[in-house]
Records
---
Amino acid sequence: MRKGKLTFVLYLIVVMIVACFPRAGYAEGDAVFTLSESIESVESVLLDQELEVTVNGNNLKDLYAYEVLITFDPEIVELVKGESKLEGFYIPPKVDNGKMTIAFTQVGKKAGVQGKLPLSTIIFKGKAQGNANIKLVSVKALDSSLAATVYSYGTAFVDLQGYEWANTEIEALASSGIIKGTSATTFSPGDNITRADFICLLVRALHLNAEVVGNFNDVEQSDYYYQEVGVARKLGIAQGTSDSLFEPRLSISRQDMMVVAARAMKKAGKMLDESVSDLSSFSDSSEVAAYASGPLAQLLKEGIIQGYNGMIKPNDTAIRAEAAVIIHRVLNM
């Protein structure tokens, strides 16, 4: 086999190994993964200074393949290169706005590595003086039988204080690429989420597809959400504020977020009990619009929504943290 074909085949092996386990649970195990740096403090990187970061595995037991997610401040440092310390097939770092993924697999039928070992080195270069803020977020580890364990070392985001009720969901969705932060280190959990952005999350998370023929009059083909809103319109998930308008940049209300989530779930084959409509357990149920009472009751029965202190707050605007929780629960139903 020619070298080019072999490289391509090995690349597919790594991609398939990692992709086959998107829903692996977060677990605590004997193995521990850490980062070590070549300078005393990554909080004081200098312009043009070279920084070597090593991904280390400790107490490893049959580590056959891995995928590592690391974050850094792209305003302070930039990637130079990455190298594997193990023999096998290594996918060099892939960088996206301060998030870096590296992956590795051994090739052939053999046992995984054991003990305490350096796994990979990553070279950064200083772009400006400051804190590089390099953090290990998660490691997906596979043994030689391709059983996967995910080790989570905390969120990449530094602004989640006060939103502990959504931390797990935000971390899980961010580490799997379903939801993104507002920067490499911030999520802005209290910011409102727009109608278009929530539709984008739903359509992408549930892998919904349809042929887009036309769209709402206020959705331009150049808009980043054109395809997703078009799919949602075609499938009857997004029905707009009128026959021709969607108002994509308006903040979505909590009840509208829940209504489109219920519609999307049904299109994705996640069936809901359409016979329920009782919301009397909420003290503000009279504020729920007639079109929303059924979908909200259906989500309530499945535990997708739970309310706040006996209220559902249907007309409040939804925030990014709430959207993450809803999407996570929908995916795990």
---
Amino acid sequence: MFDRPIASFDIETIPDPDLGRRLTAIEGTDAEVIHEMVRLRLEETGGRSEYPQLPWHRVVSVCVTTLEPSTGAVSVRELGGAAMDERSHVEGFFALASRAPRLVSWNGGSFDLPVLRYRAMVLGVVAGDFYRVDGEREANNYVSRRHDLHVDVMDALSSFGASARAGLDTMCGVLSLPGKGFLERPIYDHVLEGDGRVAEYCKLDTVQTLLVFLSWARHCGRISPADFDRSVDGVRAAIATLPYAGWRAIESALAGWPRWA
């Protein structure tokens, strides 16, 4: 499992105002259209969800935390440009995947990857390499559910749906990891205000997912305790380079981690 770079990724999305205008005839600014889409979706679902079906999501951030297993080096970065430049985010993800890292996600099989596929089709993005099942990809690829070139950690921990799936924030609490932070309101409100913290929020999810993945891999015997410690040190070193002030609290929280029960 640690025979290649590990790329823990996450996406952030908002309801697509362009689809709101074109398919539901909602008029107004992006903010007006999105808030009306949210209102209609809450009405449609009896208050259970404010977000639309997956093809209606617009990608506003894709981030990755990459671990090089041979050295323990870690980097945390955003793959696209400005929030509303969706093409840069989608193309950035498939460019990452073209280097064939082991992708790691939380609920990525049910949310992130389907959204990226739908939006790539909307944008006309070609990503044939992602779907390769020939050559070395015949034995392990991103398409077959039983392969592990993409590891959806949430899915794996729930025995692929045999038990109830836990949320990432729940697992972070159980493992004494820092929980979700940086944002106070729905993603779409922060994006509409031009708040750059959306990318930091997305990066935090990738860091959390990588640390949960490493904890699971240690439990499974896929990574030695020494390599686990080296990888966690790499995460701490990478976080120390991030300029946003909110990361300082994450640094402090990870200073003594892990804390086994």
